[in-house]
Write a structure and sequence with these properties.
With 226 residues, this protein is an all-alpha fold. It is built from nine helices and no strands. It has helices at residues 2-23, 53-57, 72-90, 93-116, 121-132, 141-157, 164-177, 179-200, 209-223. The radius of gyration is 18 Å and the shape is globular. The two termini are 30 Å apart. Residues 9-89 form the Prepilin peptidase A24 N-terminal domain. The chain crosses the membrane at residues 6-26, 71-91, 140-158, 170-198. Belongs to the peptidase A24 family.
């Protein structure tokens, strides 16, 4: 029962972050306005705000205008729920607080990139400072420099390649993990993004931060020795 509580807590936080990520860069209010359907602008009631389950109950559609809702909503909520459940079962005390803050920053970066295709510098700075204070930080200047060079070259060689926010996130990851581990992180993120591209077959720009964020979580929690 407690695991289900953690799961729903994480899904609710993720749902709120997803909303904040959409509204904040546009200067829209966050805390004092009701959620509405993006298509018909109908105000949603409480039963339509239950993370993950409301999407399933309504078969992925708005109850009022029947427009198909983006699968990103339940996917982001599911990721938030899974990460929160993992954190509560893996950490406690100060470590739980720090890692919760870490993944909150990464989640906001991923969600803002998904909605608006950019990552705020303020979040990049906050992430760097938090990781710099981590006692497990390898603090690899070489890793940061190498990924900065690789990212700059890729931006010149590949049209519509890595964006500036993605470059900064990779440089921070290189500083934190070192260049070898960050290379694996990048390959994992690229594989996930490529899989999505092949399934959706979209020609438009793909936000890369969500894949980098998920790869960061997998790398940090499962591939880095403590």
């Amino acid at each position: 029962m407690i695991s289900f509580y953690y799961f729903m807590l994480g899904a609710s936080i993720a749902s709120f972050y997803f909303l904040v990520a959409f509204r904040l860069p546009l200067g829209q209010p966050i805390g004092f306005s009701r959620s509405k359907c993006d298509s018909c602008q109908k105000t949603l009631d409480a039963t339509e705000l239950i993370p993950i389950f409301s999407f399933l109950f309504n078969h992925g559609r708005c109850r009022y205008c029947q427009v198909n809702l983006s699968l990103a909503y339940p996917l982001f909520e599911l990721c938030g729920a899974t990460i929160t459940l993992f954190l509560f079962h893996s950490y406690s005390g100060k470590s739980l607080l720090i890692n919760g803050l870490l993944y909150s920053i990464l989640f906001l970066m991923a969600a803002i990139d998904y909605h608006h295709l950019f990552i705020p510098d303020s979040l990049q700075i906050a992430l760097f400072l938090l990781l710099f204070a981590d006692p497990y930080n390898h603090r690899s200047l070489l890793g940061a420099v190498l990924f900065l060079i690789v990212s700059i070259f890729s931006s010149y060689l590949v049209k519509d390649g890595l964006g500036g926010g993605d470059v900064k996130l990779l440089v921070i990851s290189g500083f934190y993990f070192g260049y070898l581990t960050t290379t694996k992180l990048l390959l994992l993120a690229a594989s996930l993004a490529l899989s999505y591209f092949l399934v959706k077959k979209q020609e438009k720009l793909i936000p890369f931060a969500p894949y980098l964020t998920f790869a960061f979580f997998i790398t940090k929690e499962f591939f880095v020795s403590r």
